[in-house]
Design goal:
The structure holds 2 protein chains of 2 kinds. Chain A has a 5-stranded mixed β-sheet, with no helix packed on it. In chain A, a hairpin with a 2-residue loop joins strand 3 and strand 4. Chain A has 1 helix and 5 strands, in the order E-E-H-E-E-E. Chain A has a single domain, classed as Beta-grasp domain (Ubiquitin-like (UB roll), Roll), CATH 3.10.20.30. Chain A is globular, with a radius of gyration of 13 Å. Chain B is an alpha+beta fold. Chain B has 3 domains: 197 residues, Aldehyde ferredoxin oxidoreductase, N-terminal domain (Aldehyde Ferredoxin Oxidoreductase,  A, domain 1), CATH 3.60.9.10; 187 residues, Orthogonal Bundle (Aldehyde Ferredoxin Oxidoreductase Protein, subunit A, domain 2); 183 residues, Aldehyde Ferredoxin Oxidoreductase Protein, subunit A, domain 3, CATH 1.10.599.10. In chain B, a hairpin with a 3-residue loop joins strand 10 and strand 11. In chain B, helix 11 runs parallel beside helix 13 and helix 18 crosses helix 20. The longest helix of chain B has 21 residues. Chain B is globular, with a radius of gyration of 22 Å. The chains are: A mainly beta, B alpha+beta. Chains A and B meet through loops of A and helix 8, helix 9 and helix 19 of B.
Chain lengths: 88, 626
C-alpha cells in the first residue's frame, strides 16, 4: 500500500536529502541538496527516484545518526548520503 | 639504443662529493622491466646504496624518477617518485609528488636523476634542456622553500620547476619534506633531511623539448575522453570542488576521523575543520598539476595578512594536514590549521609526521611522562591551538624540546622511555596518516606492510569494495576483483583484495600516475591506462606486464629492507589500533597477524621473515638482487 504521510494540518511531509562527496555529479540536475516529499518512502526508493546508483552509496546519515538504506523517511528528516570514504 | 618514445632513455647521474655530472642510457628492455617511478627508485637504491649506510651520510643515494608518460598531455601521469634510504625508517624510503617538475624533467631530456655523495657547501642543481650544472647556493641556505624557489627562478632564463628543501631539511629534521612549488609536497620518509645532508638546496628544471609519443592520436583519444568525462565522475567532482579537505564530513560521519592521537574516531569540532573544504573566509581557486583538469589543489586568496601568501594565494591544506593538525590534536580552528600548513610548506616539514609527533607530545604531557620548560610555557595539551605554531618553530630550529621532537615520535618515545612508546603512532618509524584502520582493515594492512613505513597510499581503501556493484568492483574487474569484501574482515578475500590493489598502485607508482585520476579512486579505467602506455611508448604492452612491473617494484623495495636486516618484526601497527576508537571495535591482533602471514605466502615471500623468496625474485627477473 502506498502510504502518504501528512501532518495534522494535512500538509505533505518533506525531507531534505544532501548528496555528499561528489554524488551530486550523478544526480541528473547536479543538485547537491534535494527536498523530497516523504511519502513513507525508504531512502533507497528516494535515491532510485533521483536516478542515483544506490550501489555507489556507502553511508547514510539521518538527522546525524547512521541509518540503513531501508530507513523510512519521516517529516523533517535531514538525510546525508556519502560515497565510499577513501584516502587522499 | 631506445627508440625514444615515451621515455628519453637517459638518466642523469650527479656525484655531489666530486661535483661530477654524467648520464647513462638504457634500452627498451630496461624500461619495460622497471617502467619508471618506483621501479627506477628500487633499481637504483639496490644498485647504488651499500647495505647499512647512514641515511644522512654521503653514501646514501637520492633518486628522482618519472614515468613513461610524464611530460605528455596525459592527465595525472607526470608525478615524481623520490626515493632514498629513509632517516625515519632506516630502510627503503619513498614519497610521490605532483606539480609540473616531472614534466619539465622529461622535457629537459631525462627520465630520472640519481644523486650520490654530499657537497661540502650548499649547492643547487640546475638542469636546462639537456645540460646540468651545480650552482653555489650559499646565499639560499636558510631560505624558506618558496623564497629559494623565487630566487632560483630569477636566475634561470626560462621559468623552471623547482624542488627544494627548507630550513627543516637543512637542520636534518627526520621528517623534513621536499617541496615543489608552494603546495606540492613529497612529504614522507624524511627525504628532505637526506637532501639537506647532501647540502643540496634545490633542483631546478626547465625543458622545452616535446616528449615523443609513438601514437599521438591514440593518446589524444584517452586524454580527450578524460577531459569530457571527469565532471561526471563523483570522486573527481568531489576533488575538483572541495579538494581533499572535503573528506572531513565523510570521515566524521563514518567515525574514522583520527582524533586525540588515534584514540577516538569522531571529533566534536569537525565542522570548524570542514570549512577548509568548503567556501570559507577566503575566495578559493583550483590549482592543478601538469595536464590535469581536476585541479584538486585548492588555494585561498588571503588578503588579511593572516598567513604568508605567494602572489596573494595560500595553499589550502590537504585532508591529511587538516586532520593531523586538527582533529588528531583536538583543535577545531581552521585558521590554525591553515597557518600550520603554510609554515610546514615554507620550512619543509611533513605535515603528517609533524602533527602526529605533536599529538604524541601532547599525550605524553597528559600522561605525565614528560615535563619540560617549553611544554609548560606553551601549555602543550590537546585542544590548545596556540601551542602548535611555536612547537613547529622549535622543531624546525631544533631548539629545546623541538630537538627531541625533530627526531620523530618513535625515537622521541625511545628516549623518553617509561612506556611512552605506546603513544607513538608510527610503523617502522614513520607516523600514521589520517585514516583509521579500525573501520577499514585493508588500510591497516597497508600501514603494516608498506615498505616505506605507515602510509595511506599503498592501495585503494576497503569501502570502495564493500557492496556488489560498488564503484570499486565496477571498475576493478580487470584486476580480478569481482566480489564484495567486508571492510572489517581480515579473511583470505581481504588479503587478496589488498594484494591486488597494492600491486595495481605500485604499478601506477611506476607510471608516475596519480591515484586521483585512475580507478578505483578516480576516473580512468584500467584498459585505458594500458592503452595510454601503449600509445605513448609503442609497446605491445598488456595489463599483465604492467602489473608485473608493479609487483617487481614492490619486491625490490622489500628486498632493500631485507638487506637492511629487517622484515616481519617491523610489519606491526601500533597497539592502540587493537583497542576500540569509541565506534569501531579494535582490530583483532590475532586475525591481523594471520592476515599479514597469509599476505607473505600469497606474494611468494618467506612466511616467517617476510623476505622475498629466491624463486620470487627470479620469477620477476631480479637475479641480481641478493
Amino acid at each position: 500500500m502506498n502510504r502518504v504521510f501528512r501532518s495534522l494540518k494535512g500538509e505533505e511531509m518533506k525531507a531534505i536529502v544532501r548528496l555528499m562527496g561528489g554524488l551530486h555529479a550523478l544526480e541528473p540536475h547536479g543538485r547537491n541538496e534535494v527536498t523530497v516529499t516523504a511519502e513513507g518512502l525508504t531512502i533507497q526508493r528516494v535515491l532510485e527516484r533521483l536516478s542515483l546508483p544506490v550501489n555507489y552509496v556507502y553511508l547514510v546519515l539521518v538527522n546525524g545518526g547512521t541509518a540503513a538504506i531501508e530507513h523510512v523517511l519521516r517529516d523533517g528528516d535531514t538525510v546525508e548520503v556519502y560515497p565510499p570514504i577513501c584516502g587522499g | 639504443m631506445n627508440a625514444g618514445y615515451g621515455y628519453t632513455g637517459k638518466i642523469l647521474l650527479v656525484d655531489l662529493s666530486s661535483g661530477t655530472i654524467a648520464s647513462e642510457t638504457h634500452d627498451d628492455v630496461f624500461y619495460r622491466t622497471y617502467l619508471g617511478g618506483k621501479g627506477l627508485v628500487g633499481y637504483y637504491l639496490l644498485r647504488e646504496v651499500p647495505p647499512r649506510v647512514d641515511p644522512l651520510g654521503p653514501k646514501n643515494v637520492l633518486v628522482f624518477a618519472t614515468g613513461v608518460l610524464a611530460g605528455t598531455n596525459m592527465p595525472g601521469f607526470s608525478r615524481v617518485v623520490i626515493g632514498a634510504k629513509s632517516p625515519l625508517t632506516d630502510g627503503y624510503g619513498e614519497s610521490e609528488v605532483g606539480g609540473s617538475w616531472g614534466a619539465e624533467l622529461k622535457r629537459a631530456g631525462f627520465d630520472a636523476i640519481v644523486i650520490k655523495g654530499a657537497s661540502s657547501k650548499p649547492v643547487y642543481l640546475e638542469i636546462v634542456d639537456g645540460s646540468a650544472r651545480l650552482v653555489d647556493a650559499s646565499e639560499l641556505w636558510g631560505l624558506s622553500t618558496s623564497d629559494a624557489e623565487a630566487e632560483i627562478a630569477r636566475r634561470v632564463p626560462k621559468k623552471p620547476a623547482v624542488m627544494s628543501i627548507g630550513p627543516a631539511g637543512e637542520r636534518l629534521v627526520k621528517f623534513a619534506c621536499i617541496m615543489q612549488g608552494d603546495r606540492n609536497a613529497a612529504g614522507r620518509g624524511g627525504l628532505g633531511a637526506v637532501m639537506g645532508s647532501k647540502k643540496l638546496k634545490a633542483i631546478a628544471v626547465s625543458g622545452s623539448t616535446k616528449v615523443k609519443v609513438k601514437n599521438p592520436d591514440g593518446l589524444s583519444k584517452v586524454t580527450s575522453w578524460f577531459a569530457q568525462n571527469f565532471l561526471k565522475n563523483a570522486p573527481s567532482v568531489a576533488l575538483h570542488e572541495g579538494g581533499t579537505a572535503g573528506l572531513i564530513p565523510g570521515l566524521q560521519a563514518a567515525s574514522m576521523l583520527p582524533t586525540k592521537n588515534f584514540s577516538r574516531g569522531r571529533f566534536d569540532g569537525w565542522e570548524g575543520l570542514a570549512k577548509l573544504g568548503q567556501k570559507w573566509l577566503y575566495e578559493t581557486k583550483g590549482r592543478g598539476c601538469w595536464a590535469c583538469p581536476i585541479r584538486c589543489k585548492r588555494t585561498f586568496e588571503v588578503k588579511d595578512g593572516s598567513v604568508k601568501t605567494i602572489n596573494g594565494m595560500a595553499a589550502c591544506p590537504e585532508y591529511e594536514t587538516v586532520a593531523s593538525f586538527g582533529s588528531n590534536l583536538c583543535i577545531d580552528d581552521p585558521l590554525t590549521v591553515l597557518k600550520a600548513n603554510v609554515y610546514c610548506n615554507e620550512m619543509g616539514l611533513d605535515t603528517i609526521s609533524a602533527g602526529v609527533t605533536i599529538a604524541f607530545a601532547m599525550e605524553c604531557v597528559e600522561k605525565g611522562l614528560i615535563d619540560d620548560g617549553d611544554l609548560r610555557r606553551l601549555e602543550v595539551k590537546f585542544g590548545n591551538a596556540s601551542c602548535v605554531l611555536p612547537l613547529l618553530e622549535l622543531i624546525t630550529d631544533r631548539k629545546g624540546i623541538g630537538d627531541l621532537l625533530a627526531e620523530g615520535s618513535m625515537r622521541a618515545a625511545s628516549r623518553i622511555g617509561m612506556g611512552a612508546e605506546v603513544f607513538a603512532m608510527h610503523v617502522k618509524g614513520q607516523e600514521l596518516p589520517m585514516h583509521d584502520p579500525r573501520g577499514k582493515t585493508g588500510v591497516g594492512m597497508g600501514y603494516a606492510l608498506a615498505d616505506y613505513g605507515a602510509d595511506h597510499m599503498t592501495a585503494a581503501h576497503d569501502p570502495l569494495f564493500a557492496k556488489a556493484g560498488s564503484y570499486g568492483l565496477q571498475t576493478c574487474a580487470p584486476l580480478g576483483l569481482l566480489e564484495p569484501v567486508d571492510p572489517l574482515s581480515l579473511n583470505a578475500d581481504k588479503v587478496r583484495l589488498y594484494l591486488y590493489l597494492e600491486m595495481w598502485w605500485d604499478a601506477l607508482k611506476c607510471l608516475g600516475a596519480c591515484f586521483f585520476c585512475v580507478v578505483p579512486r578516480g576516473l580512468l579505467p584500467v584498459p585505458m591506462v594500458v592503452e595510454a602506455v601503449a600509445a605513448g611508448t609503442g609497446w605491445d604492452v598488456s595489463l599483465w606486464e604492467i602489473m608485473k612491473a608493479g609487483e617487481r617494484a614492490g619486491c625490490m623495495a622489500r628486498a632493500f629492507n631485507t638487506r637492511e636486516g629487517y622484515g616481519a618484526e617491523r610489519d606491526q601497527i601500533p597497539a592502540r589500533l587493537f583497542e576500540s576508537n569509541g565506534n569501531y571495535p579494535g582490530i583483532s591482533k590475532e586475525r591481523f597477524d594471520a592476515a599479514i602471514r597469509q599476505y607473505y605466502k600469497m606474494r611468494g615471500w618467506d612466511p616467517v621473515s617476510g623476505a622475498p623468496s629466491r624463486a620470487k625474485l627470479d620469477e620477476l627477473g631480479l637475479y641480481w638482487v641478493s
